[in-house]
Amino acid sequence: MTPDAILALYAWHVGSCFRCAQSSLFVTYLGSVTTPSGDEYKLDACGACILNMESERQRWASRKGREYAPGSLGS
To answer: What percent of the chain is predicted at pLDDT more than 70?
Structure first.
């Protein structure tokens, strides 16, 4: 699957990436974390980080002999 096809599987909005800390770029929502004090932080990732994480998932699936299906980060 091409990088553009993988990125098309996600919904995008402008924000900041939790992985690379860049801001004012298109990101996709992956989930949230809640601190012990109850503060909730949304986790959004940019396209470059999404592609890196998808690549990591693909390598993991290959090592484990499992099928890789892109587009489910944050699900």
So the answer is: 100
- 46 alpha-carbon distance from chain centroid: 7
What was the pLDDT predicted at 75? 78
SS3 3: helix
DSSP line for 27-64: EEEEEEEE-TTS-EEEEEEEHHHHHHHHHHHHHHHHHH
Element of type H or E holding 6: helix 3-7
Helix (H) or strand (E) holding 26: strand 25-34
Please state, in angstroms and rounded to a whole number, the distance separating the CA atoms of residues 59 and 38.
35
Q: What pTM was computed for the model?
A: 0.90
Beta pairing class for 25-34 and 40-46: antiparallel
